[in-house]
């Protein structure tokens, strides 16, 4: 049995002193003001045990990590009909490019590029009367923590500056791949991205993907097959234009966010969340990526 | 001296009986209801003489032809600083593609693709307090006809369905190439496109481009150099992805619109406007393009 | 313990009767003449046991499957310096497109698109005096079968019609990413693709990738880390533009070839080879893809 | 009447002293050794008069200028069937990109991108027994100067380093848009580009395009319509990715070459050739472009 606590402490110690911690996202004030020295790791084992180090208990903006949660929420409702409106192929392009969307007639390459996540949000807006509340309740239930909340100030800032997302949503609409009003869909999208969680809460929320669909309280949230499929998409598409690199270096399904968080998991074993706000040039947490590389090297645990 | 009246009557007769007149634009009801049998030609010679045949006196939606007028309005104000925000190269792509815009960091390829015309509209919104009225007055003065007006119903329909233009404007905004609010800029853009004019009015309005910058009333609207530059852009970029074909087959600077109108001109000689609402697969008037080909073949007049 | 023999017989029976078996590759006579009714499956378990059904003992052209073998041959020699000349990201494009190669300055997206495999071949030509013989000996040793051979007629046909590969190699050369003569590199490339193997031989040859780098005779061919990395690349890039779909539907690292073969594997468990010559529109074996989907559904075995 | 001699002397004087003369092409030794201080202008009026200044009598490598000559040679033979294999739209891309060629199924965008000129060369190889000699004789006849010749050393250097052209030719072949062997076609192509001519010889050779198809000796080489069409293509496609800029700033049909030469012309008036070996970042002669801008500004002569 691996001594996870020992491993994550070693990883934390090794990386804490790195001078280059990447650049904190600066497009909205709420993100740019975060201290780049924050660094936390949390591991939740399938057997219920937890391991933690550093700033694992500080909430941060989950941003694109929310895309994996919204996919998990929508999958049992829409099932395979999702894939008539979104593909599951890696984008081969940075995360906010519209070119491929246009070339491929408004079908986003996968649910984790912005355009794909906006289509998922559109499905939720169609299905639920109050999709924002439903989404928030879902996250709270998964993490078994009712204190989790939106950061309304972040959501508002995203709305005021998110011209790229408005462009994507309107382009989807022009291809008849958005059923609801652009404003309604983006209202959900900006709020889901604004949710703040700690490393612990994230590890708990994603527990179901390491546990064949059953959440922390062992309630079936997804079928085993649905959980596997989300894992497959996280592995091939979870890290923008760096998905291949992450599979290559780390070898775990995962999802990153521009807030500096990363969630990753080994099916039937554990989930692991890291947080370090500085990003590399691909938009993924610089130290978080290194931490996961070190972690899988030291534990010799990967899906490969 | 060419007998222009004879030529355009022969062209009109030859094409009037064609069974394939192309497909009328169908994305808004106001355009889709136009009778595809409409077909008019009007020639305005630099010496003041006019020649007309068919439905030359029926107003139609000028649509993208307005882009050449807005360029003419903005050029004497912003002069060469325009070209810091827009390029002058052919797009090599259909008229509403965002891909190149994204690849080229928000600098539209030329002022006649939608994104480029939206930047021009942005300049007018910045410069004028009431840009819509200024634009309308400019067109009325150029054509020497105060009855010309917006079609508010068309403008409203464009606003309700113009998701591609909203996408373009937001993408420009995300690249900091739009100074004003997306809604304000598109409000001008949709109204300028909605203006209705007859072949005669169009021929008169573009008179200045055949007359070294001096309009019908011989007032200098553009310097000779500015008129030449607009002509050069019309030749290389005036027909979406068919600009090369038009230069090759017709050999005149010109601009087409999705309403089925085309304006073309031979510097120091004449302007010619055609209208036939059915479009070819590139979005240009099918019969209009053929009419101009026949016209330049019969008159042996082209810039080459 | 799963009854593998039972499972593959059920899969074989279920798919054998499908009327649509896809289209056999037709660009060279040697491939177009293959009977599309051929269908074999072979499973090699890490514990040494074998399971087989159908035409598992008929040799076929391995084609692109050879790209994973050449990567395995080159990796212990050039180690991480490989990645200065080739990336590890999915291509997001069909397998023979040069556009991305040009956009990305001659760095192939991954070692499994043709351009990437040609760079790998170039490394072998630089390193070995007789690279074709070295490559063949390596395959024979891995599969523990000295009867495996090139099909010289296939290699010759590929050379006479492989204009796309000549284009790729010359484009690489123009970007200074090819050290040797185009002809020398393509000579190795066309020969490695022409190798003929049975499902059994393939399963044996790839045994090392399921066995932490140790081949059938338990000799270390790759470090454990190198084996994992090839698996990661197979998962994200092994199926042309269908890699995401394969990860999503099957959930195993694998590699397909235009000859209708597919090799896939579950680390620490087994390798599985299928062969059915008819291809789907993405260029992967239609029945082979379905067989692997059924296999992982029935056995509930995947990396996710 | 304009005093052309006066104008070109003023232009020459103004630009001769510019310190930034651009960068001489360096990919083959024969071009990189040219003195960047060379600068000549030659004007040939339709009335037979000539005007010259500077190094107008020094031969230089015409390179891509030869593409306009090969189009003129092939047009009366293949007529409109040429356009089944090549389009006439601007490329919207730098001159050696293969991406569009691939996207558009092997149909080059126009006859002046390398791939298009290679298809023209292929037509000549199909039609003539000794296409190189036919091409050379054609140039000699047009310029009325039998001393014009290939530079075999340049042609050989191009062959040894022209991997991008080999890539283009093989890609064309893969799309069945090349009838002959790649080597045979490129042998003609590299030789036609290697021809050396003076400004005077170029002005004379292109005389027919300003003279409705009749060459210097008033022999009809092209119909009037064919001459106009080549002029239209030169205007829209003659300057790589800078065609719009050239139309915009200069307003004459023309063609440039990487050897630093530019030919331009005003139909029914004159041809003008400039030579200055330093290139701008788009691959056109830096001083040559400026000279033509100044020339048209001073003479107020352009097609617009």
What are the SSEs and their pairings?
The structure is a homotetramer of 304-residue chains.
Chain A: H1 4-16, E1 23-24, H2 29-32, E2 40-45, E3 50-54, E4 60-61, H3 66-78, H4 99-103, H5 114-127, H6 131-143, H7 152-161, H8 163-174, H9 182-194, E5 196-197, H10 199-205, H11 207-210, H12 224-237, H13 243-249, E6 254-256, E7 261-266, E8 270-275, E9 278-279, H14 286-299
How would you briefly describe this protein structure?
The structure is a homotetramer of 304-residue chains. Chain A is an alpha+beta fold and 304 residues long.
| Number of β-strand runs of chain A | 9
Largest interface by Cβ-Cβ < 8 Å: A-C, 36 and 36 residues
Q: Quickly count the helices of chain A.
A: 14
The number of distinct structural domains of chain A comes to 2
Order of helices and strands of chain A: HEHEEEHHHHHHHEHHHHEEEEH
Assign an overall shape of chain A.
globular
Q: Give the neighbour order of strands across the main sheet of chain A.
A: 3-2-8-7-6
Helix percentage range of chain A: 40-55%
The helix/strand class of chain A is alpha+beta
Q: Can you identify the CATH superfamily of the largest domain in chain A?
A: DD-peptidase/beta-lactamase superfamily
Strand content of chain A: 5-15%
Major beta sheet of chain A, specifics?
A: 5 strands, antiparallel
Average of per-residue pLDDT values of chain A: 94
* Low-pLDDT residue intervals, each spanning 5 or more residues of chain A: none
In the CATH classification, which architecture of the largest domain in chain A applies?
3-Layer(aba) Sandwich
Calculate Rg of chain A over CA atoms: 18 Å
Distance between the termini of chain A: 19 Å
CATH class of the largest domain in chain A: Alpha Beta
At the fold tier of CATH, the topology name of the largest domain in chain A is Beta-lactamase
From the structure provided, what is the oligomeric state, counting identical versus distinct chains? Answer: homotetramer
